[in-house]
Design brief:
Layout (H helix, E strand, L loop, with lengths): L4 H20 L8 E8 L2 H16 L9 E7 L8 H10 L4 E5 L2 H8 L5 E5 L19 E5 L3 H14 L5 E6 L6 H13 L3 E6 L6 H11 L3 E4 L10 H10 L4 E3 L2 H5 L4 E5 L1 H16 L15 E6 H7 L5 H6 L2 E3 L1
Parallel strand pairs: 1-2, 1-3, 3-4, 4-5, 6-7, 6-8, 8-9, 9-10, 11-12
Antiparallel strand pairs: 10-11
Helix pairs in contact: 2-10, 3-4, 5-6
Length: about 325
C-alpha cells in the first residue's frame, strides 16, 4: 500500500525516533575488571603475567574486548608502603576480582572483605587466617598456596646431596613474609637430616650484606633461602654474587635465582602457578563464590642446577643429582 507524502514523512520520523529509544533500553553490558596487586613488577613477573593473560585468552577472556586488567604494584622495594593505597584504588574502581602475590594478600584482605581475592602465595593460608580450610575457604579468598616447609625440607635434602659433609646451614628469610610455623617445620626437617639450622632475618635490602657476614662468622657451610618478593627477589643477582664470593653453596625457591647465578633452585613453576590462578579467576567471573573454591596446592616443580656456579665453588655435583635436574645451566 502506498502512503501519502505526509504519512510517509511521519512514519520516517517515528522510525528514527524509535531507534535510539530501543538502544537506550538495552544498556551495554559491563566489562569485568581484574585487579592485580603485586609487590614489584620485575621482568620475571612480567613473564609470569603473560602466562596469566595467555590462560585467560584460552578461557575466552580477551583483554580490551570482554575483560579489563588493572595492574597495581610498588615502583621500588622501598615503595611498598604504597601498596595499601593501591589496594584501596582497586576496591574503589571497583574491580570484580583481585589477584594477589605473596604479602599483598594481607593488604587486599584489609582493603575488602567482599570482593573475591585469588591469592598466589607460598605460605600457609590457614595459619595466616586467609581461609578456614583449603577445601572450604569460606570467605572472599581462594587461590593457590605452596607446600611451605615441605619444600624447605626437600631443598635441604638436595643441598645435603650436593654437599654430603654439610652440617650447618643458614636460613635467610624476611619475617614479614614467612610465618613462625614455616620456620618451625624447616627446623624439624633440618633435625631429621642431622643439620644445624641458623635463622637470619633480612628486613631490608641493606641487611643482606650484614646477614652474609653473620653467616661467615657462625661458620655455616651453606645457605637456604625462603621466598621473598619484597627484599631478596629484587636483589637476587646481588645475593647470588655474595654467596659466590663467600664460597657458600645455596639453594633458592625459584629458578630466577639459579639463572641469576645461584647454585640451585627448587620450587613450583611460577608460570604454571599464574596459569592456574587465571583458571580460578575464570570460575569467579562466571559466578563461582571464592569461599566454595578449594585452595589448590602445587603439583609441578622445577629443579635447576647452575653448573657454572658449582665449578666456581669447587663443588662436584653428583651424577645422581644432575639426573634429577629439570635444567642444568652450563
Amino acid at each position: 500500500m502506498w502512503c501519502s507524502a505526509i504519512g510517509c514523512i511521519v512514519m520516517l520520523i517515528l522510525s528514527l525516533l524509535g531507534a535510539p529509544l530501543a538502544t537506550e533500553a538495552q544498556p551495554p553490558s559491563k566489562v569485568p575488571r581484574i585487579g592485580l596487586l603485586m609487590p614489584l613488577l620485575t621482568p620475571e613477573r612480567a613473564h609470569q603475567l603473560e602466562a596469566f593473560r595467555q590462560r585467560l585468552h584460552e578461557l575466552g577472556w580477551i583483554e580490551g574486548q570482554n575483560v579489563a586488567l588493572e595492574l597495581r604494584y610498588a615502583e621500588t622495594g622501598t615503595d611498598t608502603a604504597r601498596l595499601p593505597v593501591l589496594a584501596a584504588d582497586l576496591v574503589r574502581l571497583p574491580v570484580d576480582v583481585i589477584v594477589t602475590v605473596g604479602g599483598t594478600t594481607r593488604i587486599a584482605q584489609s582493603a575488602t572483605r567482599t570482593i573475591p581475592i585469588v591469592m598466589v602465595t607460598a605460605g600457609d593460608p590457614v595459619e595466616a587466617g586467609f581461609v578456614t580450610s583449603l577445601a572450604q575457604p569460606g570467605g572472599n579468598i581462594t587461590g593457590l598456596a605452596g607446600l611451605g616447609a615441605e619444600l624447605s625440607g626437600k631443598r635441604l635434602e638436595l643441598l645435603k646431596q650436593a654437599v654430603p659433609q654439610l652440617s650447618h646451614v643458614a636460613l635467610l628469610l624476611n619475617p614479614t613474609n614467612v610465618s613462625a610455623g614455616y620456620v618451625r617445620e624447616t627446623q624439624v626437617a633440618a633435625q631429621a637430616l642431622g643439620v644445624a639450622l641458623q635463622v637470619l632475618e633480612v628486613h631490608r635490602p641493606e641487611d643482606i650484606a650484614g646477614a652474609f657476614a653473620a653467616v661467615k662468622q657462625e661458620g655455616a657451610g651453606a645457605l637456604l633461602f625462603l621466598t621473598d618478593p619484597l627484599v631478596l627477589e629484587p636483589h637476587r643477582h646481588h645475593v647470588a654474587a655474595l654467596a659466590l664470593q663467600s664460597g657458600l653453596p645455596a639453594i633458592y625457591p625459584w629458578r630466577m635465582y639459579a639463572e641469576a647465578g645461584g647454585l640451585m633452585s627448587y620450587g613450583i613453576s611460577l608460570r604454571e602457578w599464574y596459569r592456574r590462578a587465571a583458571t580460578h579467576v575464570d570460575k569467579i567471573l562466571k559466578g563461582a563464590k571464592p569461599g566454595d573454591l578449594p585452595v589448590e596446592q602445587p603439583v609441578q616443580f622445577e629443579f635447576i642446577i647452575n653448573l657454572k656456579t658449582a665449578q666456581a665453588l669447587g663443588i662436584m655435583i653428583p651424577p645422581s643429582l644432575l639426573i634429577l635436574a629439570d635444567e642444568v645451566i652450563k
